[in-house]
Write a structure and sequence with these properties.
The structure holds three protein chains of three kinds. Helix content of chain A is 71%, strand content 3%. Chain A is an all-alpha fold. Chain A has one domain: ABC transporter involved in vitamin B12 uptake, BtuC, CATH 1.10.3470. Chain A has a two-stranded antiparallel sheet with strand order 1-2. In chain A, strand 1 and strand 2 form a beta hairpin. A six-stranded mixed sheet of chain B has the order 6-7-8-3-9-10, with helices on both faces. Chain B has a four-stranded antiparallel sheet with strand order 2-1-4-5, covered by helices on one side. In chain B, strand 7, helix 6 and strand 8 form a beta-alpha-beta unit. In chain B, helix 3 crosses helix 4, helix 3 packs parallel to helix 5 and helix 6 packs parallel to helix 7. The radius of gyration of chain B is 19 Å and the shape is globular. The N and C termini of chain B lie far apart (40 Å). By secondary structure, chain C is mainly α. The two termini of chain C are 15 Å apart. The chains are: A mainly alpha, B alpha/beta, C mainly alpha. Chains in contact: A-C, B-C. At the A-C interface, helix 5, helix 10 and helix 12 of A face helix 4, helix 5, helix 10 and helix 12 of C.
């Protein structure tokens, strides 16, 4: 099952058309873009805390999985997809709050410690999920609103996937606006450069940091439940998801949300096209891109120039 | 042929020209001091000369060889050494190990993976010489971070001499030292001998006028004045730009 | 002596002092004994152990030795060079897979040939991965190594994914099984679990000794200098990139040796041996034991393997949770590791005894 994760979306509703090369190309592109936006939703929370605050949270993959499980638990008991989404986001946000408050807050600036601690937490979290919900994968349920496919000519594409793209774009706009236009964005940027200064200006940087981290975690949970109908959910997913997140962030660059979406698009499209057109080398296409970007532009394609 | 030749050297950070078309040369055996107000670009220029920073334009020549794009360690191997304004030692090692590491940098065998480093007889003797010269031999087994500031400064300069350089770049060697310690450093620099050429950044005017044969004034990244100490002392531009702040700093001492 | 053991694995600087033995010039009977004695005693104990403990304990100690080597190899980077890497398990697993593949698919029966090949191939892998990895390692990055951490982590995961998909070679996610005990070790010597114990002991001790010599050599001190102050090292004439890169290769190669032993030990290699989970284990070993002391990871290995064993007896499915909890505890409460505490305790004891 774990191999399946990086083999691309597994939602059974595989789009098939009787078409020729053009249709295959269009479908692959649509698949790639929707996969890319799942990756974007996944990576956005990490990019936020890492790129903006400089805080490393390697439990991020596990938080996504937790979101999926929280959400699915609600969906299965209450029957409401939307309630599931809310609970996933809020629940994981609270878990994130706990992580920040009890641990990360005390490790400000100590990067290796943050990394190790969050790896340990992620590991523990995955095991807790296994404990509570068992080892078998759960399939997400597509909400009724979005069941079915949309037809364009002789092509069919799942509505839900389009919904994800829509959500992804909405999140992108919100984060972009937050980054460039709001006071919060400016405060965080200023605080990154000079924490003392923001404090002396009367800004409660601690509060802002906590809020940002909480938001990043909530975003991970949100991505988890949204992605569940497409990627499924199983306890050990976190590692593969973290790897994807890291690839997206490295390729796209950190510090700017534009980088994250670009990275997601590249990885998503390269991976999907790779699988569609070169099945044997499927796994490697995104890895190759990853390593090439590292060699050629270590700071990422749209990143704060660090190297 | 001058030992060091700097031609039209510039570096920009964003829109700001930190160093602008700087041209000068240093002759073998010379003692050249670089002065200027804070932020004038002196340390930036040093970083360009040592290779820590890459210029946006211009050339640096050492013994006629273009080293503009040579790495930091490459330049040290050629015979350029540098001391740092903010003391830059190996804080968790002993004084002796600091000396040993510094000495090994330009000697053969620094990649040896067997053979105990601390047993290397040649290195140990060289370290002893180095440390005795700066009166730190008695403290050879003390961890550097436990030394007094003045002692650390002495070690700082000694480490840069470990590579037996032809050109020594001293960045504020007397920074933060008491008058006695400053006088000590000044004497040591004077004793360096004609085989070493010294280019020095300094605020301490006693040090500058005690050691320098020629002085360059840097202001906003450009050379505004250049000449023998007496000329500089009399130079009106210098007085306007710099002596005002000098008076303030001597008042502080 | 004025020098003290300095704790502080993570006060922003990972700092490794010179190995437990004192500098040769000061070595006298008094200084020599306290530091080398426990090492000799433990070595002798290990050799004598099989005669008075059941075989499952022997097996456990074998595992401890393997992970001790694994941890010490990683500490060349973490503790000594100050290079924080999260992908070290990749080399461990790769070494093990090399050995396994050579035997199962390549028919290479001889243990020594296998070992040397795996050592070289793993070194080669490290050489290959090191080039892109160090592209994201700035000067003096031991202070802020985020990118390097992430990239090496990604490499480890990446390799385990490769292992999963290269099914014909590696057996896919179920792993490569059927690795027999070493053959051709010595003419006429048949290795079983009992003699494997001693074989492991010999190899681990030799490797630990080589690494010990390495970190005390000219090269080793240069690494420490780079850890402490890379900028100064450059200014002193050292090509710091070359040192970091080669240390990555050396550490990886020795990690591969541990992996080879592991492959023979368990008879099976799974992709997880290269991924994040295994990196977590070796990481815990290093920091729990103290990265700032050469012998630290050895202590860490004993503790971690021991606790894992206990967990497998009483709460078999909860080991990852326990491990996560231990990691959190160590980072928050004893970040310098217990090795440092043991060492200061031991030194104090010796001083008391001497007076």
């Amino acid at each position: 099952m774990s191999a399946g994760l990086l083999a691309g979306p597994t939602d059974g509703v595989l789009v098939s058309t009787p078409g020729g090369r053009v249709s295959t190309f269009i479908i692959t592109t649509l698949n790639g873009i929707s996969y890319a936006f799942i990756l974007f939703l996944l990576a956005a929370g990490f990019s936020l805390t890492f790129g903006v605050m400089g805080v490393i949270n390697l439990a991020h993959g596990a938080l996504y999985v937790l979101g999926a499980y929280f959400g699915l638990a609600i969906v299965n008991s209450l029957g409401s997809f939307w309630a599931g989404v809310v609970v996933a986001a809020v629940g994981v946000g609270l878990v994130g709050l706990g992580i920040y408050f009890f641990f990360l807050r005390h490790l400000y600036g100590k990067v290796p410690e943050q990394a190790v601690l969050t790896i340990g937490l992620g590991y523990a979290l995955a095991n807790i999920i296994l404990w509570v919900w068992g080892p078998f994968a759960k399939m997400g349920m597509t909400p009724e609103l979005f069941v079915g496919v949309v037809r364009v000519g002789d092509l069919a594409f799942p509505i839900y996937r389009l919904f994800i793209v829509g959500v992804g774009i909405a999140v992108l706009i919100v984060l972009w606006w937050m980054q460039d236009k709001t006071r919060v964005g400016a405060i965080i940027r200023a605080g990154m450069d000079n924490k003392e200064m923001t404090r002396s200006l009367g800004i409660n940087y601690g509060l802002v940091s906590t809020a940002v981290f909480l938001f990043g975690a909530a975003l991970a949970g949100f991505a988890g439940i949204l992605g569940a109908p497409v990627l499924g959910a199983f306890p050990s997913m976190g590692d593969a998801l973290l790897l994807l997140t890291l690839m997206v962030v490295v390729v796209g660059g950190t510090g700017y949300i534009q980088g994250t979406v670009l990275g997601a698009l590249i990885i998503g499209l390269v991976d999907t096209f790779g699988k569609a057109y070169i099945p044997q080398a499927a796994l490697f296409t995104s890895y190759v891109i990853f390593i090439v970007v590292l060699l050629v532009r270590p700071s990422g394609l749209i990143g704060r120039k660090v190297f | 042929m001058a030992l060091l030749e700097v031609r039209d050297l510039s570096v920009h950070f964003g829109g700001l020209a930190a160093v602008q078309s700087v041209t000068f040369s240093v002759e073998q055996g010379e003692r050249l001091a670089m002065i200027g107000p804070n932020g004038a670009g002196k340390t930036t220029l040093f970083n360009l000369l040592t290779g820590q920073l890459k210029p946006s334009g211009g050339h640096v020549l050492f013994n006629g060889k273009d080293i503009t794009h040579l790495s930091v360690h490459g330049r040290t191997q050629l015979g350029i050494a540098r001391s740092f304004q903010i003391t830059s030692l190996f804080p968790n090692e002993t004084v002796r190990v600091n000396a040993l590491i510094a000495l090994q940098g330009t000697r053969a065998g620094r990649f040896r993976m067997f053979g105990a480093f601390s047993k290397d007889r040649e290195l140990r003797n060289a370290a002893r010489d180095l440390l005795e010269k700066i009166d730190l031999w008695d403290k050879r087994d003390e961890i550097v971070s436990s030394l007094a500031y003045g002692e650390q400064r002495k070690l700082e300069m000694a480490l840069s001499l470990a590579s037996e350089p032809e050109l020594l770049l001293l960045d504020e060697p007397s920074c933060g030292l008491t008058p006695t310690e400053s006088a000590d450093i000044t004497a040591r620099i004077k004793d360096l001998g004609s085989k070493i050429t010294v280019l020095m950044i300094a605020h301490d005017m006693d040090l500058v006028f005690g050691v320098a044969e020629r002085i360059i004034l840097l202001h906003f990244g450009e050379i505004t004045a250049e000449g023998a100490p007496d000329e500089i002392r009399a130079n009106q531009t210098v007085k306007d730009i710099y002596m005002g702040s000098h008076r303030a700093s001597t008042a502080g001492n | 002596m004025a020098t003290q053991v300095k704790p502080g694995v993570f006060t922003g600087k990972l700092f490794a002092r010179r190995a437990v033995a004192t500098a040769p010039a000061e070595r006298s009977a008094r200084a020599f004994l306290p530091t080398i004695l426990p090492v000799i005693v433990i070595g002798v104990l290990i050799l004598l152990l099989p005669t008075f403990v059941p075989s499952y304990i022997q097996s456990l100690v074998t595992k401890m030795m393997i992970f001790a080597l694994f941890g010490v190899s990683m500490n060349i980077l973490w503790g000594f060079a100050g290079i924080p890497t999260f992908g070290h398990a990749a080399f461990f697993g790769f070494g093990g897979y090399c050995a396994g593949i050579l035997i199962v698919h390549g028919g290479v029966g001889n243990f020594w040939i296998n070992l040397v090949l795996a050592f070289l191939l793993t070194g080669l892998l490290a050489a290959g991965l090191g080039i892109p990895a160090f592209r994201v390692y700035g000067v003096g990055a031991s202070d802020n190594p985020i990118y390097f951490l992430l990239v090496t982590l990604a490499f480890g995961e990446l390799l385990s994914r490769v292992a999963i998909s290269a099914r014909s070679l590696t057996g896919g996610s179920t792993g490569l099984a059927g690795i027999p005990y070493p053959q051709g070790v010595l003419p006429g010597l048949h290795i079983n679990s009992h003699s494997f114990y001693f074989l492991t002991f010999v190899i681990v001790v030799v490797c630990l000794f080589l690494i010990y010599r390495l970190v005390n050599s000219h090269y080793g001190y240069a690494l420490r200098g780079i850890h402490d102050n890379e900028r100064r090292m450059q200014a002193l004439g050292y090509n710091t990139w070359l040192y970091k890169y080669t240390s990555y290769i050396v550490a990886g190669a020795f990690g591969g040796v541990a992996g080879v032993l592991f492959a023979y030990f368990g008879g099976v290699m799974v992709p997880g041996n290269m991924g994040m989970a295994m990196t977590d284990i070796v990481f815990l070993i290093v920091i729990l034991g103290s990265a700032s002391i050469y012998l630290g990871p050895i202590v860490g290995a004993i503790v971690v393997v021991g606790v894992e064993y206990l967990a497998s007896l009483y709460v078999p499915d909860r080991w990852p949770l326990i491990m996560g909890a231990i990691i959190v505890f160590v980072i928050m409460v004893i970040p310098q590791g217990i090795g440092v505490l043991l060492l200061t305790g031991w030194r104090r004891l010796v001083r008391h005894g001497a007076s």
